[in-house]
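User: Here's a structure from my thesis project, written as structure tokens. My advisor, Dr. K., wants to see whether a designed sequence matches the one we expressed. Can you design one independently, without my sequence as a hint?
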């Protein structure tokens, strides 16, 4: 609970046995989370078993895709403030209080992983990836003028219930480019946004989305294609 507002935490989970228990416990320790929605996206390891041993609400999302898992979690949530993050240890519950403090003034709070002071040793944010995120974020800012964003791939976000209700039916992405789709739809819904730097740590296990340079480049192109398509669609 934060200032009498119920907090829901959404954890998209695909083969996250190395970090899921620690992530759930870490956020529970903040004493601010009212419900944890853990969405198993067809894991083949012990993820499901480990989730069920915690106080998190377990959901199985059979449609494969990072976006599908997050959208399912959002639909199943009941909070006034909806927190999206990763269960792989790359983000920390220690940033939650700071992010929540901005919800007093803004409808949504988006994290950014591109601030050098917040990138810890071992985090997967090497120079080209960092610059790529900034460049794509600047393109989003140009296509949809509102804020000057510095990261499009950061999934550590807080959406107000009001904001989510406005965009729920407009979210279509099932893959890894859901983050910029959420950002664009929030802008088009004329919701106020605050972007703040968040701590970015070394993750537990391997990334399923940006394994190497080629997969990272392909995702960036998919994000750009999505943003341009949404910009064109917004004119009609």
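Assistant: Designed independently from the structure alone:
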């Amino acid at each position: 609970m934060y200032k009498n507002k119920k907090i829901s935490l959404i954890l998209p989970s695909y083969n996250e046995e190395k970090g899921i228990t620690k992530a759930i416990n870490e956020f529970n320790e903040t004493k601010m989370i009212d419900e944890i929605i853990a969405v198993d996206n067809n894991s083949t390891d012990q993820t499901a078993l480990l989730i069920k041993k915690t106080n998190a609400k377990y959901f199985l999302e059979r449609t494969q895709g990072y976006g599908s898992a997050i959208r399912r979690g959002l639909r199943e949530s009941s909070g006034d403030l909806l927190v999206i993050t990763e269960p792989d240890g790359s983000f920390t519950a220690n940033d939650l209080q700071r992010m929540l403090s901005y919800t007093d003034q803004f409808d949504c709070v988006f994290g950014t992983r591109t601030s050098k002071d917040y990138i810890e040793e071992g985090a997967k944010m090497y120079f080209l990836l960092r610059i790529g995120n900034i460049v794509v974020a600047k393109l989003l800012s140009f296509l949809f003028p509102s804020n000057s964003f510095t990261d499009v791939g950061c999934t550590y976000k807080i959406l107000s219930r009001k904001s989510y209700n406005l965009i729920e039916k407009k979210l279509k992405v099932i893959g890894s480019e859901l983050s910029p789709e959420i950002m664009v739809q929030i802008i088009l819904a004329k919701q106020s946004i605050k972007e703040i730097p968040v701590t970015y740590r070394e993750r537990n296990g391997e990334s399923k989305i940006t394994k190497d340079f080629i997969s990272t480049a392909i995702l960036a192109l998919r994000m750009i294609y999505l943003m341009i398509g949404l910009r064109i669609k917004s004119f009609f």
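When you compare it with your expressed construct, this may help: Residues 213-233 form the longest helix (21 residues).
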